[in-house]
Amino acid sequence: MGLYHLGIDSTDSPKGGCTTWTFVRVLQKLYQEDHTITFHGYPRLIRLNPNIPHRTRGNAALSVSFSSDSDQAKLFEIVKEIVLRDFEEYSVDDGKFPGIVILSDNEFKLLKSDLGADFYNSTLQHLIKIDNSRISDLATIYGKEGIVGALGSIMADLENDYTHELLAYRKKAKFNTIRKIDIDNLIEVADNHSSSFSSYDPVSKRELICPSGPDPIFLGIRGDDPRELIDFYDNLEIEEKLDYWMIFISNQGTNQHVMKMQSKIKLNSVVSTMATVSKDPVEFRGGHVKLELQINGYFIDCMVFEPTKQLRNAARELIEGDRIYIHGAISSNEFGEYISLEYMYIVDQLDKFNKLPPVCENCNDRMTSAGKLSGYKCKKCSQRSYKSIREKIDRKLIVGQRVYASHSAQRHLTRPLIRLNTRNELINEKLIISDFSNI
Ligand SMILES: [Zn+2]
C-alpha cells in the first residue's frame, strides 16, 4: 500500500467553477473507483498569498493525503480527467492553467528537501516560480503556475495552528441564482456556536457565509471545532435543497501569511510592524483615509479604505506622533508603494490640543478673534490679548485598543479577533465527510 499526496489549484475562473468543488468531486471519484483508498485527516483548504495581482477569489489550493494499492499513474488519470473537464467548462482565456500534483511519499520527501523548509511560507508571502529539474522528471504533475499552489497546499504546515471550514454546495440547477439566507436565524445559530467565526458582521448585520459569485458554493462556515460546524449547519434554516458538504482543515484565520517587517519592503507581502504616524490623516473622495507612517526610519503611505469601516473611522482619529502596531499588505499604484491597512493596535497616543482664545481677566468671558494677526479681544471691556490657550481634548482612541477592518473587508488568512488567543495544535484528526454515496 502506497502513501500519496494529492494537490490541485486553479480550476475556477470569473465565469464559475470552484477549486474546492472540483476537489470534492475528485475525492468522490477516487473513492468510487479505488476500493483500496483511505484518506488521512481532513482535506486541506490552503489560502496562499492573497495579494498576488490577477488572482480571483481568495487564491485557495486544495490537497489531501491518502493510502492506496492503485497505480500512481492511474490515480493521476482519474484526477486529471475531472480537473480538465471543469477547467474546459469554466476557463476564460486568461492564460491561467490548473495545477495537479500527485506525489508518492518518497517523492514528497525528496521534493520537500529540494524546495526547502520555507517553501510553504514563500507561497504565502511571495509570487514564486519553481525552476526545479526534479519536478519536470515527475510524470504525475500537470500545469504551469498552478503547480506552485498545489505543492504549497501539499506542503502546508498546520502544526502550530489551523481552523476548519464546512463548505456546502448547490445543485447545478441553482448555479447563478441568488442565495437566500435568513439573517436572524444565522445570527442566532452563530451566537450559539462559540468556536465559529466570521459568520456575520456584528456592525452591519450582514451575513458573511455566502459567496456572491456564480460558483457552486452555497455557504462556508468557519470555526475551530469541526463538530460544532456540523451542528451549526444542521441548525440553519435553508430553503434551498443543497447537494453535499465537506469539512476542510485550513490556514484561514491563522495569520500565517504575516511576516515580520524586514528592512526592505516587498511588494504584495503582508507586514506586521510598529509604526509612528508621521503625518495627520487626509481624507479622500470615496471616504478613504491616507496616513503617512514612519517605519524603521523610512516613510511610507498607508491607505485605509472605506470598506474597512470602523478601521477607517479609527484611522481618522490618529494624529502625528501616535504609535501604532499595524498589519497590512504592501500594494502599489501610480504614486508608489503603500500599505493597505487591515488592522491596528494603539500602542501610544499623544495628547491632542485645541487652540482656543483666552478668557478675559476682567469679565471672565471668552475673548474672540480680533482679526488676522491681531490677537484676541474681549467684547465687553475691549481688553486685548495675543496669547491663545491650549485645551486638551479627549482622544477617541484608547491605548491598547485593537481595531480590525470590518468583517467583510477582512482577508481569509487574517486572524479574527475571536481567535486572538486561540491556537489549535494538530493531532490525528479523523476525516469527517458527508456520505460519499450521496454525492
Ligand atoms: Zn473683558
In round numbers, the mean pLDDT is 85
Largest sheet: 9 strands, mixed
Integer tally of domains: 3
Low-confidence runs:
428-439
The dominant shape is elongated
Please outline what is shown here.
This protein has helices at 19-33, 72-90, 105-115, 119-125, 133-136, 146-154, 183-191, 226-235, 310-316, and strands spanning 2-9, 38-47, 60-68, 99-104, 141-142, 163-170, 196-197, 200-201, 206-207, 217-223, 242-250, 258-260, 270-283, 289-295, 298-304, 323-333, 336-348, 352-356, 368-369, 376-377, 384-385, 389-393, 402-404. With 439 residues, the protein is of the alpha+beta class.
Characterize the structure shown:
This protein is α+β, with helices and mostly antiparallel strands and 439 residues long. It folds into 3 domains: 2-157; 258-351 and 395-412, OB fold (Dihydrolipoamide Acetyltransferase, E2P) (Beta Barrel), CATH 2.40.50.1010; 352-392, no CATH class. 21% of the residues lie in helices and 32% in strands. It has 9 helices and 23 strands. The chain has helices at residues 19-33, 72-90, 105-115, 119-125, 133-136, 146-154, 183-191, 226-235, 310-316, and strands at residues 2-9, 38-47, 60-68, 99-104, 141-142, 163-170, 196-197, 200-201, 206-207, 217-223, 242-250, 258-260, 270-283, 289-295, 298-304, 323-333, 336-348, 352-356, 368-369, 376-377, 384-385, 389-393, 402-404. The strands form 5 sheets. A 9-stranded mixed β-sheet has the order 5-4-1-3-2-11-6-10-7, sandwiched between helices. The protein has a 5-stranded mixed barrel with strand order 13-14-15-17-16. A hairpin with a 5-residue loop joins β13 and β14. α1 (19-33) packs antiparallel against α2 (72-90) and α4 packs across α6 (146-154). It is elongated and about 100 Å long. Residues 360, 362-363, 365, 378, 380-381, 383 line the site of zinc ion (ZN). Zinc ion is lined by residues 360, 362-363, 365, 378, 380-381, 383.
